[in-house]
Design a protein that fits this description.
Helices cover about 40% and strands about 25% of the residues. It is α+β, with helices and mostly antiparallel strands. The chain starts with a helix and ends with a helix. It holds the Pfam family Ribosomal_S10. It comes from Lasius platythorax.
Length: about 180
């Protein structure tokens, strides 16, 4: 329609002008409308990514997770899901040299958080990762990986009573 108006105003006798104008105003294929191509990203999209942070200090980890969510929001990246895992408890003992006598004993907890993002363009993801690495607090470990469903299964704590009932049900089936 626009091309027809331009043709009426400017006579298109020169083949170079005719080619550039038709290429400029017509972008879709013959059988598909133009608006289907406008919503697609020009840059490749990454699969669902999982950003994992680990640290010994609970409050630092919580603040950094909040910062990560705000940064993703500013960059217009949608955060699909975020969750915390139960802390891992470590018992560390220091021994006297050459003996089995314990000098000191430490109980450490490692806290872990995950943030899941999908359909992130490759350009935005590289900028996000560089910004996260630059602002990483001391003692916090950052890991960016493709999302694995087994990672999400770790967050669900098994119900002990339900497992006990299932085991008793299995034993009753085996006896019968």
């Amino acid at each position: 329609m626009v091309l027809n108006l331009i043709k009426q105003i400017i006579p298109l006798r020169h083949p170079l002008i005719r080619k550039t104008l038709s290429a400029k105003f017509y972008t879709g294929s013959l059988y598909e409308p133009d608006y289907l191509e406008t919503g697609k990203s020009k840059f490749p999209l990454l699969p669902t990514i999982n950003i994992q942070i680990k640290g010994y200090d609970y409050s630092v980890l919580e603040c950094y997770q909040t910062f990560m969510s705000k940064l993703a929001d500013i960059m217009q990246i949608d955060v699909d899901n975020s969750w915390a895992l139960p802390p891992q408890e470590l018992k560390i003992q220091r021994y006297k040299t050459g003996t089995t006598a314990v000098i000191s004993e430490y109980n450490l907890k490692i806290y872990e958080r995950h943030i899941q993002m999908s359909e992130v363009s490759s350009i935005k993801s590289s900028i996000l990762i560089r910004a996260l690495e630059a602002s990483l607090p001391q003692g916090v470990i950052l890991n960016v990986d493709v999302f694995d469903p087994a990672t999400e299964q770790k967050r669900y704590v098994p119900d002990k009573e339900l497992l006990d009932l299932k085991s008793t049900l299995d034993t009753l089936k085996n006896k019968a």
